[in-house]
Amino acid sequence: MDTHYALEQEIRETYEVNGTVYPYKRYREVDSSEVFSGIYDHSKWLMLHDIIDCLTRAGFTKVEVIERRNERNGPRVLLIGKRQ
Q1: Annotated domain spans of the chain
Q2: What angle do CA 36, 78, 6 make, to 5 degrees?
Q3: 22-28: long-range pairs with CB below 8 Å, 24+
Q4: Strand ranges (DSSP E) for 1-84?
Q5: pLDDT recorded at residue 84
Q6: In what order do the strands lie in the sheet with 20-28?
Q7: The model's pTM
Q8: Contact residues for 17 (Cβ-Cβ < 8 A; gap 6+)
Q9: Contact at 8 Å (CB) between 45 and 74?
Q10: 24: which residues sit within 8 A by CB, 6+ positions away?
Q11: Would you state the pLDDT for residue 39?
């Protein structure tokens, strides 16, 4: 998985999924004409530890951070999840 994530100081909103509250950074997407934009007007960038927790809850018994990098839109991470 290669995705953006939010830094703690960027968190402004939360949402709840199945009783778990996730803090997130609201990132405004351009629109569908921009190839890298999502299909909605915004995306929710979770904190890295919450992304790892979601993968663990989904059954990945080992989640490894391969690379962290700063890109023009913000921090990004490359993760590998393994199921055994």
Answers
A1: 2-82
A2: 70
A3: 22/46, 22/50, 23/47, 23/50, 25/74, 27/73, 27/74
A4: 2-4, 13-17, 20-28, 42-46, 62-71, 74-82
A5: 82
A6: 13-17, 20-28, 42-46
A7: 0.85
A8: none
A9: yes
A10: 6, 11, 13, 14, 15, 44, 45, 46, 47
A11: 65
Amino acid at 62: K
Q: Name the residue with tokens 């950074």.
A: 25
Do 68 and 76 meet the contact criterion of CB atoms below 8 Å apart?
yes
pLDDT in tens, 8-65: 999 999 999 999 999 999 998 766 566 566 666 688 999 999 999 999 999 999 999 9
- Sheet of strand 2-4: strand arrangement: 2-4, 74-82, 62-71
| Cβ-based neighbours of 31, under 8 Å, separated by 6 or more | 37, 41
**Structure token pair of residue 3:** 């995705």
